[in-house]
């Protein structure tokens, strides 16, 4: 059912919904968000406000009747709509604590936790929740929702209007915004700044943070990557202990390489297309030091961090170029000769070191 439902609805999904889409991942969502912000900040007199929205028990708030209307609008056959609604209604549920079991009750709201359909159903349920203004981007990855306001000349009217629209939409669709866990980050590279007016959701003030873990990657207000890289290094160094223990047990080199690739390299390269190009020389050296240490333990050569970054950037860029529906596809345009990609002009090194510009530069 999941595969069939994806086939029907994917062409009609919001382009900024990145979950359950072919050739898309959390890296695509983060890279596109950073591209929008950095492209905007490349102009003078600009800053960005990023609202990381948190829903309370998101999957548990889906109303089957509303979902049925939304599925019908996405051309889902009536028979499949009825099957899904029947699946979601009159579910029996009880609670067990030790040997004590509560009475069963009937549940007719929400989607079951752990069900393979739940994330896609939530994505379809929120598909019509979009931004109506080009200066405000509403990015979604299942129930992870982020509102990015691109502010020019201090005019926040469109951003605040879209925040109000989001609150209103949630109210009409039975989604509970958790104002206490919803936070905002302000990215402002101007030399002379004044504190922007605070933001509130449903009369609750929103906290402003200096860093936030966004889809697995730590974003900071200065858009630097020391925190992300330090966290990855700590995890990788902890796992090096097990590699040394396996070496002491005289495991074959092939098995040691397999362990390194699956357990250590996978950590070092987590979302590498997002942060590696913007990493400092010192941080790149620290990352490569882990690889060199692993080479000494295993006794053979391993792919360098630079090689891993280049190969994964090319692979990700290739998938985006091959997918015209991808929101980043338009950024890869070829010159009339057809042999090279058109460069994107920039005034800042931070923008130059973002994924899309790095991928275009790499082809050149």
Quick take:
GO terms for molecular function: 2-oxoglutarate-dependent dioxygenase activity; methyltransferase activity. The protein is an alpha+beta fold and 364 residues long. It has 13 helices and 13 strands.
Description:
Residues 1-219 form the Reverse transcriptase domain. It comes from Amphiprion ocellaris (Clown anemonefish). The chain is 44% helix and 14% strand. With 364 residues, the chain is of the alpha+beta class. The strands form 5 sheets. A 5-stranded mixed beta sheet has the order 6-7-1-8-11, with helices on both faces. Strand 6 and strand 7 (144-152) form a beta hairpin.
Strand-helix topology:
Layout: H1 2-9, H2 26-41, E1 46-53, H3 64-73, H4 78-88, E2 91-93, E3 96-97, E4 100-101, E5 105-107, H5 118-125, E6 136-141, E7 144-152, H6 157-172, E8 183-187, E9 200-201, E10 204-205, E11 207-208, E12 211-214, E13 217-220, H7 226-248, H8 253-268, H9 272-275, H10 281-298, H11 305-321, H12 349-352, H13 355-363
